[in-house]
Structure formats: C-alpha cells, structure tokens
Task: inverse folding
C-alpha cells in the first residue's frame, strides 16, 4: 500500500510491518528523548539505529518540465549539445570578425569600355548652343547663339546641334546619320550602356541632336516645303572672306555671318533626318509625349522627301563640296525601315521592301563600294536592319522574297569583310581598305566593325551558328574577330603603335585639326586671322579633345600628326558615331542584343496566305 510523503512523492508502507499506529508513535517519542538527552555526537551505529534501515538513494530517471516529462539522460544530452553549439557558433563569429575582410572588387573594365567612355566625350566637345553645366569640357562655352536668327532669309531659331568636325559648320546630313547610328546602338545594347553608367549620357547626346532637328523644319505641320540643311559656310574657292573654313577661331568667338543653306527638294536629307527621329522615338519610347513628337516629325519629313524628289547637294552648292550625296534611293530603304519600326505601319515596310526601290538603291549589283556603310551610303545598314526582321519575326508573304534577298546580300557583305576574300585590300598592319586607299579611312572601318558585330549578335540570338560564304561555313565568332581586329588597330595595335582615339592609351595624336582644341582659352579673343598662328603652330594642342577619333593613317599605315593636314588628324561626328556603336557592341564580358525593343511598336504579324497557283492548262 502507498501513503503520502509530506516531502513529495509517494511513500511505500511495507505490508510486513504489523505494528500499530500507537506503537509507532511511542517508539518515535522514545527516540526523540534519547536524542535530546545525549550531549555527545552519535556514531554511525547510533545514527543507523536512530534513523532506521538505510535506503539507497535512487536518482530520478525522468525530469518534469511542467508541460512534458522527458528522460533525464536525454535532457542532459540536449542541454549539453545546445551549449556546445552555442560555444561553437560564438567561436566561429569571433574568428570571422578577427580575420581581415577582403572586398571583391568588380573586374576592371575592358579596353572597349574604357575607350567608349572617352569616345562619348567627343560629342560634348562638339556641342553648339548653350552648353549645360555638366558638359565636362572645361574649354568649351556657349556658341552659335544667333544661328538662324541672324539670317534674313530664314529668321528661325537654329541654335543647338553639333559642329561637324574641326570647324564650326553644322552639316545636317552627316549629323542626322550620326544620331541614327547612336540610337541604333542604344536600342540594341541599352543594357551594356547601363552597365557602364553611360545610358543617360548617350540618351542626352541623342536628344541634343533631335531637339535641333525639330527646329530645322515646321515640325508641328503635316506637310512642309523646305528644310534647313546646313548652318555656316565652308567654300573658300571664291576668294578670301570670313567663313568657317577661312577663319581659325574658337566657336565661342565667332563674329562673322553664318548663313543658313535651305533646300526645297532634298529627299536624301529628309529621309535620313526622318530615320534619325524615328530611331530616337524608340530610344525615348518611355517618354510618351516626346516620342510621339519625334514620330510626327519623322512622318512629316519622310512624306516631304517622297513628294519633293531631289538631292540636297546639287552641283555648285556648299554641301556638294564637303558632304555630297550620290543618291536618295538608299535613304528611302533605310528611312522606310526605321519608319516601320517606329510606327508599325505596314505601308513603310511595303516601301522599304519594294523590289523597284531596292533595285534603284543598288541592292542587286555589286561594285567596288558595295558593302561600304557610311553617311552617304546606307544600303548595307538597311539590309542588316531588315535581315533582323526576317530572323526574328519572319513576316512571310509578301515580304519574304525581298527580305530573303536582303538577308543573302548581307551574308555576301559579311563575306567581303573577311581577309580570305579579296573584295577589299588590307594594309600590312591589317586595316581593311574600304575606301580603297583614299584618305580618312577609319570612319568606314568602324562602321563595318559595328555591322559585323551586331550581325553576329543577331545570328547568335536567332540560334544560328554562322553563315555560308559559297560552300564554306563560317561561325559567328569570325565576324566578332574581324570587328575586334579592326577596332584594336584603331586603339593602338598598329605599326605606328599609336591610338587614333585622343586620350586613349599612352600615345595618341596631339595636333588634332580642331579649332576649339588648338586655340587656347586664355581670356584673349583671337579674330578670324588672329587664330592662324595657332593653326600653324607646331606645339601640341593646348586643349585635349578627349575621345576624338582622327581621320586615320594612309594606305601604307603611315600617319603624320600635323594640324595642317585634316586627312590625318581631323575627327568627325559620323566617324565617332560609328566608333561608339562598334565599341559598345564589343564591350563587356558577354555579347548579346535586346531582341524586343526594336519591335516595340510593331503589331503582331499574321502572314498573308500567298495566292493559289494559276489553274493548270493543258
């Protein structure tokens, strides 16, 4: 039987004990008196007699935690393990904090990225009009603030835009091509621009150009009959007189008249400027109001170019001396493609793929300059642009036949760039001679490098490993290798061991043919002839025009760093635009394009079913 132990737990009462409760009580009282009457300590025998038989103290096998009872052994193991883990964790934390931290910095930028940063700065140095505070070219200031306003025949505001080269003329034909090319590079490689921190910069550069273009015609109208083609004058053949080529002055100090050249039938210029506004509208598609303004202006210009046929540079005109256009059919194909991408209107695609237009543009025949992409000839670029449509959207009938032709011709052009074919000569240093040994070769080289690089990215994005040149198959890496070797030549891997981009590398041209860079900003205003001493000086330019790609070497890889010879040392907008496009396409660790942005305004395409074949006649 069991009784209750007043100290907790159960108390077992032996059944063998027959003593009554009264007898127990008397025995306990006798023991208490014996303990009190004794004054000496009790020995073990007495303690044993007093306390009764010894009981083995048994350890508890369980632990009561209130809500649950657990095994004492498991409880102690758990507590020990928790303490050990805590100690170990604390030790690890102490070790981690005690060890010096090594921050993993991102890898240094590649050469193409470094050169890209510099090449973009050239456009800052070429700005006309009110210079923004963040322009970062200390020797430039406001200039051309009366452009258009001082011309009695125009009386329009033509302030802004870019100076073309080493002078202060604004040639709208190559300027608009430059903005189109820059916009194309942003559409394809916006992620790369963003990764280098240059996306906002390049968009600002483009907007500076397009804002100016919108001033060159009545951009709010649907129909126009004139277009400003040029600001400034460069022809010196009619005798000495102050103009932008006769004088050698900082643009900020110009005080001579700057006439505006206006055209009334200029299909080439209108179509190119329409392409610039259309391409930029895709770049600024997130700014809906501005994008729509650009699209409207592009529509007006393209319509004007189609309605008022003619070249913007007829014989004897100032543009014909410096930027003579050989025709406008290629601009119709080029501009029509950009208009389609900007609007999604199939009428523009129908025009750009019209076989008759392509024939006039020279798409079906070769020639010594076939495949050369430049401010004058847009066919090679237009064919690459329309091949993109076939690769990714495959619109089918009725466009497939001509798009396939453009695609095949693009493959032929890419074959012509390769060294194993003899379409173009090469210098001993490896520079392709796209202009057949004529001066100023680099602007054509960088454009070809961009086309090769972007086309290789198109093929990669379409899961196409390469292309055929006759019976031989070449992987896309061959195109990128071509682009890299040509750009590497520009950046210093050439017989002169000289970078042709100012400010890049340890050795680059110091006598650039450029008025603003060669005349010091020293508080002295040099007049028209007063600046000649700086033009003729053998000293390096006092101002470094960072990022300017000069005209380049001759056909023997020779180069003369002299200010007086523009065929070697003058940079241009169009040349630098091609350089920027090529550099961004090659920059970064990975290649790749944005497949979708160019098609953002293009509606889903449902190919038309081709007509059935004619009925069989016996």
Result:
């Amino acid at each position: 039987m069991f009784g209750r132990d007043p100290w907790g737990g159960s108390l077992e009462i032996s059944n063998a004990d027959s003593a009554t409760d009264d007898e127990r009580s008397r025995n306990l009282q006798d023991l208490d008196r014996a303990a009190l009457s004794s004054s000496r300590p009790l020995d073990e025998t007495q303690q044993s007699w007093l306390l009764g038989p010894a009981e083995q103290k048994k350890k508890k096998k369980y632990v009561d935690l209130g809500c649950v009872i657990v095994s004492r052994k498991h409880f102690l193991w758990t507590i020990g393990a928790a303490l050990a883990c805590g100690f170990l964790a604390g030790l690890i934390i102490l070790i981690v904090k005690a060890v010096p931290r090594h921050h993993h910095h991102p890898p240094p930028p590649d050469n193409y990225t470094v050169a890209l940063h510099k090449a973009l700065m050239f456009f800052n140095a070429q700005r006309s009009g009110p210079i923004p505070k963040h322009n970062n070219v200390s020797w430039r200031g406001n200039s051309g603030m009366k452009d258009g306003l001082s011309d009695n025949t125009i009386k329009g505001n033509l302030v802004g835009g870019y100076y073309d080269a080493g002078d202060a003329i604004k040639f709208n034909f190559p300027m608009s091509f430059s903005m189109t090319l820059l916009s194309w590079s942003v559409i394809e490689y916006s992620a790369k621009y963003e990764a280098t921190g240059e996306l906002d910069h390049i968009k600002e550069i483009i907007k500076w150009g397009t804002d100016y273009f919108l001033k060159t015609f009545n951009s709010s109208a649907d129909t126009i009959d004139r277009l400003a083609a040029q600001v400034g004058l460069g022809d010196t053949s009619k005798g000495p007189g102050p103009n932008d080529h006769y004088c050698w002055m900082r643009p900020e100090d110009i005080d001579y008249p700057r006439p505006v050249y206006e055209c009334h039938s200029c299909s080439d210029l209108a179509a190119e400027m329409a392409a610039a506004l259309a391409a930029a509208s895709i770049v600024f598609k997130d700014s809906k109001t501005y994008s729509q303004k650009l699209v409207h202006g592009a529509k007006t210009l393209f319509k004007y170019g189609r309605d008022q046929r003619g070249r913007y540079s007829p014989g004897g005109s100032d543009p014909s001396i410096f930027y003579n256009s050989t025709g406008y059919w290629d601009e119709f194909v080029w501009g029509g493609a950009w208009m389609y991408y900007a609007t999604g209107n199939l009428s523009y695609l129908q025009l750009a793929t019209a076989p008759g237009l392509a024939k006039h543009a020279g798409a079906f025949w070769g020639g010594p300059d076939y495949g050369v992409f430049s401010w004058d000839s847009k066919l090679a670029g237009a064919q690459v642009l329309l091949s993109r449509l076939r690769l990714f959207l495959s619109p089918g009938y009725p466009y497939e036949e001509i798009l396939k032709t453009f695609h095949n011709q693009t493959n032929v052009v890419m074959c012509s760039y390769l060294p194993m074919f003899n379409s173009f000569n090469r210098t001993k240093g490896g520079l392709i001679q796209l202009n057949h040994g004529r001066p100023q070769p680099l602007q054509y080289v960088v454009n070809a490098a961009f086309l090769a690089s972007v086309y290789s990215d198109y093929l990669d994005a379409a899961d196409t490993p390469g292309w055929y040149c006759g019976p031989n198959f070449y992987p896309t890496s061959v195109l990128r290798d071509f682009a890299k070797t040509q750009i590497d030549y520009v950046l210093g891997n050439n017989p002169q061991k000289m970078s042709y981009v100012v400010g890049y590398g340890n050795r680059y041209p110091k006598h650039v043919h450029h008025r603003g860079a060669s005349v010091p900003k020293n508080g002295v205003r040099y007049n028209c002839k007063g600046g000649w001493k700086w033009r003729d000086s053998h000293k390096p330019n006092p101002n470094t025009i960072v990022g300017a790609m000069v005209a380049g070497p001759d056909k023997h890889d020779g180069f003369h760093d002299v200010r007086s010879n523009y065929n070697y040392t003058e940079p241009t907008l169009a040349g630098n635009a091609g350089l920027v496009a090529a550099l961004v396409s090659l920059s970064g660790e990975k290649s790749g394009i944005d497949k979708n942005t160019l098609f953002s305004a293009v509606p889903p395409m449902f190919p038309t079913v081709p007509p059935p074949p004619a009925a069989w006649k016996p």
